[in-house]
Amino acid sequence: SIKNQDQWNAKCIEIKSAAINSFKDIDYKIYGTTDEITLPNTLSIAFSDLDAEAVILTLKEHAEIATGSACTSDSYTPSHVISSMGASETEAQRVVRFSWGSDTNPEVFKSIATSLKSLLWSNIPVSKFEITPLYLKAFIWDLKMIASYAVNIYSSNTKEIIKRYFRISITSYR
């Protein structure tokens, strides 16, 4: 019914507002508008200079997120709609689309913002970072090794593995 649709729209608009508010401490750009002429349950947004693929990999456990329309959500290709709005190829590669329903807990966007801040503040130049199948395989293997060392004994090799992939400085490890 129209009453149910109006309630659904109102709840989704409230969630969109909560999402945008959660990102207030992050440099972002919204593609499209956030007024009543757009869908109330979607948000196309880019975060700083983060590549969309890196954002999706970081947030896949938190949210329904994609780079394109729902019909191309299994692909990491930039949205043709965003490109047709005048975004450069680089800009289009940074845009992700969040989708939600009226029963989505808006608090999820706080955890999304926290994860994005960690990604932004890491030392890895994410916009230039390419995840190839070979790299991913090596990374997963090294994570298994780190876990193995952590459970059994400390190894200086573990420290080097952590430094190599996470580019962090370790002063003590136990």
Keywords:
174 residues; alpha+beta; 7 helices; 10% strand; 4-stranded antiparallel beta sheet; globular
Would you give an account of this structure?
The chain has 174 residues and is α+β, with helices and mostly antiparallel strands. 47% of the residues lie in helices and 10% in strands. The chain has 7 helices and 4 strands, in the order H-E-E-H-E-H-H-E-H-H-H. The radius of gyration is 19 Å and the shape is globular. Mean pLDDT is 75; it is low at 167-174.
Strand order of the largest sheet: 1-2-4-3
- Which range best describes the helical content: under 10%, 10-25%, 25-40%, 40-55%, 55-70% or over 70%? 40-55%
Strand content: 5-15%
Number of helices: 7
Can you write the helix and strand succession as a string?
HEEHEHHEHHH
Largest sheet: 4 strands, antiparallel
Overall 3D shape: globular
The total of beta strands comes to 4
Summing up helix and strand content along with how strands pair, one would put the structural category as alpha+beta
| Radius of gyration over C-alpha positions, nearest whole angstrom | 19 Å
**Span from first to last CA?**
60 Å
Give unreliable regions as ranges. Answer: 167-174
Average per-residue pLDDT, rounded, comes to: 75
Brief summary:
By secondary structure, this protein is of the alpha+beta class. It has helices spanning 2-22, 52-59, 80-84, 89-92, 108-121, 133-151, 156-166, and strands at residues 28-31, 42-47, 64-66, 95-99.
List the helices and strands and how they pair.
Layout: H1 2-22, E1 28-31, E2 42-47, H2 52-59, E3 64-66, H3 80-84, H4 89-92, E4 95-99, H5 108-121, H6 133-151, H7 156-166
Antiparallel strand pairs: 1-2, 2-4, 3-4
Helix pairs in contact: 1-5, 6-7
